[in-house]
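FORM 7B: Structural annotation worksheet

SECTION A. Query
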Amino acid sequence: MIVNLIMLILATVATFVFLRSLFRGKKYAYMVESLDAKKYFMKDFYVAGFCLNEGKMFRLRGKLERDLKKDAKLVWGEKYCEYYAVLAWVQFLTWTLFACSVGLIIAGLAKGQQVMIILFLLALFTAAFWNLAISNMKEAVQKRREECEAEFPNMVSKLALLINSGMVLREAWYIVAKGKEGTLYDLMKSTCQNMENGESDVEAIYKFGVLSDSSDIKKFTSAMIQGIQKGNSELADFMMNQTSELWAHKRQISLQKGEVAAGKLIIPLGITFGGIIMIIVSAAMQSMSF
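SECTION B. Predicted structure
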């Protein structure tokens, strides 16, 4: 009885905080209006999270803020990185507070061991909300990095072919960037814009490596910058060597992914094989009973 009373008191507090934040957060409605409702579930409630983020207790700060801004900068660019970093945190706050309001009410009305089960489920939901709101951004960065690395050998091959034909780096870069669509080529197009805005080739290519967030591409751009500084002939030789090395590296990665995929198939195959054995054994036992 005492536990139920405590749960109901906590539920009242959580509900009051949620409704108060929802009402006071109406001024942030413009910040969620343009979000895709299919991608951002309960987006109209996010205003409560923005309101909570105003206070010192729930404000995004510290290492989490730096990590979110870093990941958001890679995915959405420097202009929108702060907004999407805060948005991820606001999602977590909104979902968690709403779940606490509903979950604690149910726990307050439950009996016996049901209270502990509901609290355990509430903790699981909180962990799931954290994964959806915070970890999703890291997964987006990882996916983006993999897309860049997958297309990287093709890009270098095209670039090497154009440079070896006598074309200067900047012109070759423009042609390759505009020749195909994709994450890596979008970064190349951004590099072209930086060059047009007055940045040197070295500065623009260095930023390209940083924004890719790939250690392999960063190593390549660092070595490429050294080749630029030594001259076009050195750069052409470097590009040809890098092409063969990158294709060999891509073959190794493809083989590793194939082995991982084959390993994942062992479990379903084992379950299927076990099911077949059980069917055969049960059929044999039924025939023996006659």
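SECTION C. Observations
Residues 114-164 form the longest helix (51 residues). The radius of gyration is 28 Å.

SECTION D. Sign-off
Analyst initials: ____
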